[in-house]
Model the fold of this input.
Amino acid sequence: MNAFLTIFKKELIDTLRDRRTIIAMIIIPLALFPVIFGIWTTIQKSMVKKAKEKTLQVAVISNDSETQKLIEIIIQKEKFKLIENVPEDSVRSFVQNDSLDGVFVFSKTFDKRVENLRAGRIKFYFKSSEGDNIEKDRMKDLVDKFEDSLLSARFEKLDLDKAISTAVKLVEVDITSKKERIGKAIGAILPYIFVIFCFMGSMYPAIDLAAGEKERGTIETLLTAPVSRFVILLGKFGVVVLTGISSALVSLVGLYLVVLQFGEIPPEIIDVISGIFEIKSIILLLSLLLPLTMFFAGVLLSLSMFAKSFKEAQSIITPFNFVIILPVLIGLIPGVTLDPKTALIPILNVSLATKEIVAGTIDFWLLIEVYASLAVLAGLSLFLSSRIFLRETVIFRG
Amino acid sequence: MIEVNDLRKQFKLTRQQKKELGRASKNGTVEAVAGITFTSKPGRVFSLLGPNGAGKTTALRILATMLKPTSGSVKICGFDVQEDPQEVRRRLGFLTGSTGLYDRLTPNELVKYYADLHGMDKKVFEKRLDEIYTRLDMHGFAKRRIGKLSTGMKQKVSITRTIIHDPEVIVFDEPTAGLDVISARSIIQLIRDFREQGKTVIFSTHIMGEVSLLSDDLAIIHKGKLCYNGSYKDFVDQMKTNSLEDEFIKLVEEA
Done:
């Protein structure tokens, strides 16, 4: 035990003094979410503001008398400018080259149809955007008001109450709790954080403590110390697991900072995120993270041990970054849920179980199955790395 | 005391090595050490002389329990390297010219790490550390990161790490490789000191000058086999050529 602690302590000090590890383990996980959310929120806010504040240039093409009502609405409305005398055959090109933001073209039968209590047709030309289409909604709002005024006139003419136009009022009752609904949505993002940061946080220490030790030539002297090779491996393994878990936890802190830093997040989402930071959730998530990181640590140490140098280890391990993302992506597909089969598939089971934990709907026996599956894998990966560490052809390869 | 008896070590060849060696490879293996026998006694310096690739490092790695022999036996202070590797390691110090150090640690941290792995008592460690630091003039840089030290300073740290637990047997594998003349000379002096202290010292080299400066006993190894094994004095007395270098080349060519 003393030898294990001695090795663990030394490897931890050595690892924490490595800039690459600090960047991968603390700085990136901590800063990534605040930076991404920060940039995204700033851009989003400025785009929305721009779309709301912009004076929209609108044209109306019609010869009908009813059109005047719409023109009045446009003139009275703030941040709208009516452009007159637009030739009908140039509508598309004017909208295309942003000379106009929108054009309403009335059909020739508009007045007649409205008079006969039918729907008059208006063609609305606009350029859609990828986001919220705020500009389009602002222009559509003009037509809604226009329609409202026509309807009011129509009901008045017929001497009817406008309320009769509503025959059904649908009252939706969703039995899924808000926590469950939002939790599953947020829970879909969390596996990314856990799996990727667990892996990233473990990667550099594993490479440094195995391939790096071989490259520096320190492995020879370490092997002449009166300690079994398994204990040496265990010390390294412990540090790799610790850095992997720490990295995932630091990323959670980063996520929490996002909540604190960026307002305008709906209170239900804040409730769910705050729920993650409850002791029960943290213990459950940590208990999933521990065997997962042990699994990663065993695999990463084995691969790094096999490499002759830090660089070679990096080339071997980098493709695994993509391999681990695949099960996480599968977990995002709608309809893929935690069941006795998926609970056995590594990484995917963590991804699905995390979603359920955050939503508060985790099934106890399925969680036990996930633990058992991960524990077996963690044990196997430790066994594999110990076998590799005992092979002199691997240790002295090259 | 080191007792080596009919020591052999075979390595499996990689596909590439098999291709390169062709028929020369026996059953896909190569014999790096091919049945060597020698004894190294306390208070004497045993030199293992051989050209590059002769099997020196493999033999010394077996002595240091890093590699397992294919056959034969090695005993260090009466303990078999295969049966009691931990006991062997307790009594052994191992230093190579290419020994790496942990650049992010300080000499103090590094030496303490190895002392802890050897289970040294705190007071004994502190006393011994002070003795070595004083002797090697290391107090001035004991708290600086190793990565920032000069080659000579690093070599002193390596030496301290090797001898902190006061080993009975010290193995030097080409200890002066890559060192400047002054650093190399200090290693030579250190080996002499260990001999005076009654330690069993074995060192491998391909540099003739070091052999003549240090050796009490000598073994010449080539292609895994010993071409000579005896006292250095006897070797010099029976030389048929004018220099140690010529005699070494003659022996190697005849083997």
